[in-house]
Design a protein that fits this description.
8 helices; single chain; globular; alpha/beta
């Protein structure tokens, strides 16, 4: 099959490494997108991936994809599903419009984006439902935590700088981690940003102390 496209870009995203393990992994998304590219007769394929929340546009993989589309390197973009582009409807529409100006956008799941009244309406409805579901999940999580707090309890999650007491369901100061927290505050107050602090800590091999938290080079949010 001869394709009218020269180069396909695959964009895959998961919010966290834990989601990558327990949910639909990056590898699975990429495999499905590659199969679609081959179905369309495209063999020249570039991959763009992110392990970061879909509520921000500040993602390394997405940044690189948008740059290459702008530079006319890509003429076909394949994404597993609409919500992989973004978890916010407004951002979905913005990214989609930007891609469609220079390339064709194709999804593995559901219908492809169609630049028509019906196509745009379908896209809006699906995006709105995805955003609504995300907000409902967040609301349930917050409500559950609030009920625990009202009972004088805390959730059993790692809070850096503290050690969880499972018997009493309270937190006690972890002096080793607390020293790192105090240092972060000191560096920040003296003019260093989180993006500057994280690489310095990584050089000193401190990220290992963050346990289950994602502290990749492109994820200063933990700081």
């Amino acid at each position: 099959m001869e394709s009218c496209f020269n180069t396909a870009a695959i964009y895959a995203r998961v919010s966290t490494k834990r989601q990558a393990r327990e949910g639909f992994s990056l590898e699975s998304q990429i495999k499905a997108c590659k199969e679609r590219a081959l179905e369309l007769g495209v063999k020249n394929i570039k991959e763009y991936v992110d392990e970061i929340t879909g509520t921000t546009l500040n993602r390394p993989g997405l940044r690189n994809l948008r740059r290459d589309i702008k530079d006319n390197i890509i003429d076909l973009v394949i994404c597993y599903d609409q919500d992989r582009l973004s978890r916010k409807l407004g951002q979905q529409l913005f990214i989609t419009e930007e891609i469609q100006k220079k390339a064709k956008l194709v999804f593995v799941l559901g219908d492809n984006y169609k630049d028509s009244i019906d196509g745009k309406l379908s896209y809006l409805i699906k995006g709105a439902i995805a955003e609504y579901e995300r907000e409902k999940i967040l609301e349930r999580c917050i409500r559950g935590k609030r009920e625990k707090y009202l009972k004088g309890q805390t959730t059993n999650s790692h809070l850096f700088g503290y050690k969880y007491n499972n018997k009493e369901k309270t937190y006690n100061v972890n002096e080793e981690e607390a020293a790192v927290v105090r240092r972060i505050f000191s560096l920040y107050i003296n003019g260093m940003s989180s993006r500057q602090i994280l690489p310095m800590f990584q050089t000193e091999n401190l990220p290992k102390i963050f346990q289950l938290k994602n502290v990749g080079c492109n994820d200063p949010s933990v700081i």
